Task: inverse folding
């Protein structure tokens, strides 16, 4: 059963992992040789030197982009933007006549980041953590690329990290996203930030580390492309560009960083296409996407892969079922529509052809519940659909089934933190006919260890909430 109210110390839920990934652009130290920022291949060996990665991110933040004018007379929530560039410090005079240096907001943020980097570096070297509160869950084990860096980064995120969401725009295209079903992760994240009660929400834009563009790609597609008279992405691209022009004209923050500290989150697979008209505008911009497809311009050094979660009405994700390995009598299972090239290949090789690899387009009558059917298997097949991501991956983890990720060009979620090779199997498209041989070749001891790790990681793929449903980040 889904846990509705776990404490934040016990569960590191899915959207906190997302925020930790955003934090990586600022906190992670290049000395950590076992905790890469990103990986083009989900199962590649971590790089031995992160100095190049760190320098790349810093260079991206300095790359000039098309600038927009700034109207300093407009205000946000009663706050009037400053005429200063924000980078300089100012002075005041003390009682004895001496000058006191006042740090600019940007320098104050950087000072906090320096401390955070030092704390992460110390955690890596000492193999321990520093926290101002009791830590009831301490991540350990080889499923984490570096559990010490991960844990300390998480502590620093809760302590310091701030997000500012722009208030410009009107519903339904902005500030309104679905909270149920296949696209619900967008609405869950938006609800948490727009309620303003999370400790991660900045009270003032000068406090922020990143800026959120509250644009709903799903709503734009729903309202602008229904009925589907034209599938061109021009309308979508122009709407996003117009929004960026509005905030860049009104505030100094986009121009200050060339968009490098701005992000947009979207579940919809069309989100990858927003940068095709003016690619220079998005050279530094962070996209948080489920469709993390490197063949469609997903940039793993900058963009963030988000897991695909189907959230039924009144629930907070798939049910959690915990069958022991000796009660899992079927080798592998999949049931779902033939949507996309990868599933066509899977159906051609395995659809209703044998009992050990059970592949169905429609669930048989003797299998009445999909989640329970998944829980009967040692391995759960998670093929890409029209896009690379599939909700089957999270569903498999929820029922303690080892995921078999059937995909090409997919950057797996949280792969900067989690070593997916320790608890999943990757099968590229050209190996689909060999699935049975690949799974049969997994030694029983390795399978048992992988299944144990899947259960260990269930806490990281949980959505917790205030109402039914929403996300609780605090």
Result:
């Amino acid at each position: 059963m889904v846990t509705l109210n776990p404490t934040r110390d016990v569960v590191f839920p899915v959207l906190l992992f997302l925020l930790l990934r955003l934090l990586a652009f600022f906190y992670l130290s290049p000395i950590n040789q076992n905790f890469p920022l990103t990986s083009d291949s989900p199962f590649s060996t971590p790089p031995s030197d992160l100095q190049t990665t760190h320098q790349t991110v810093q260079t991206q933040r300095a790359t000039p982009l098309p600038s927009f004018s700034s109207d300093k007379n407009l205000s946000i929530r009663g706050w009037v933007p400053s005429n200063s560039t924000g980078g300089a410090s100012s002075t005041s005079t003390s009682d004895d006549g001496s000058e006191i240096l006042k740090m600019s907001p940007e320098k104050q943020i950087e000072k906090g980041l320096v401390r955070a980097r030092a704390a992460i570096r110390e955690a890596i070297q000492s193999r321990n953590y520093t926290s101002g509160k009791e830590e009831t869950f301490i991540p350990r084990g080889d499923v984490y690329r570096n559990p010490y860096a991960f844990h300390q980064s998480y502590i620093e995120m809760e302590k310091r990290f701030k997000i500012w969401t722009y208030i410009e725009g009107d519903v339904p295209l902005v500030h309104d996203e679905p909270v149920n079903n296949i696209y619900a992760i967008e609405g869950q994240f938006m609800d948490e930030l727009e309620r303003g009660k999370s400790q991660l929400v900045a009270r003032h834009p000068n406090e922020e580390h990143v800026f959120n563009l509250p644009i709903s790609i799903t709503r734009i597609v729903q309202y602008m492309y229904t009925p589907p008279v034209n599938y061109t992405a021009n309308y979508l691209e122009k709407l996003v560009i117009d929004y960026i022009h509005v905030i860049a004209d009104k505030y100094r923050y986009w121009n200050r960083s060339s968009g490098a500290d701005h992000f947009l989150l979207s579940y919809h697979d069309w989100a990858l296409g927003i940068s095709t008209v003016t690619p220079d505008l998005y050279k530094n911009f962070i996209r948080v996407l489920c469709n993390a497809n490197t063949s469609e311009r997903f940039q793993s050094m900058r963009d963030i892969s988000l897991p695909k979660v189907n959230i039924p009405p009144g629930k907070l994700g798939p049910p959690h079922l915990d069958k022991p390995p000796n009660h899992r009598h079927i080798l592998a299972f999949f049931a779902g529509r033939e949507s996309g090239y990868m599933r066509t290949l899977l159906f051609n090789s395995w659809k209703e052809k044998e009992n050990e690899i059970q592949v169905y387009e429609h669930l048989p009558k003797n299998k009445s519940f999909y989640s329970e059917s998944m829980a009967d298997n040692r391995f759960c097949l998670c093929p890409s659909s029209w896009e690379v991501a599939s909700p089957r991956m999270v569903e498999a983890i929820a029922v303690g089934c080892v995921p078999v990720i059937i995909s090409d060009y997919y950057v797996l979620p949280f792969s900067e933190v989690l070593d997916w090779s320790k608890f999943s199997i990757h099968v590229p498209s050209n190996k689909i006919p060999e699935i049975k041989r690949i799974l049969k070749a997994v030694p029983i001891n390795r399978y048992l260890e992988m299944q144990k790790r899947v259960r260990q990681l269930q806490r990281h793929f949980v959505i917790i909430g205030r109402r039914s449903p929403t996300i609780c980040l605090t």
Summary: Residues 1-12, 25-86, 466-474 have pLDDT under 50 and may be disordered. DSSP finds 13 helices and twelve strands in the chain. The longest helix spans residues 105-126.
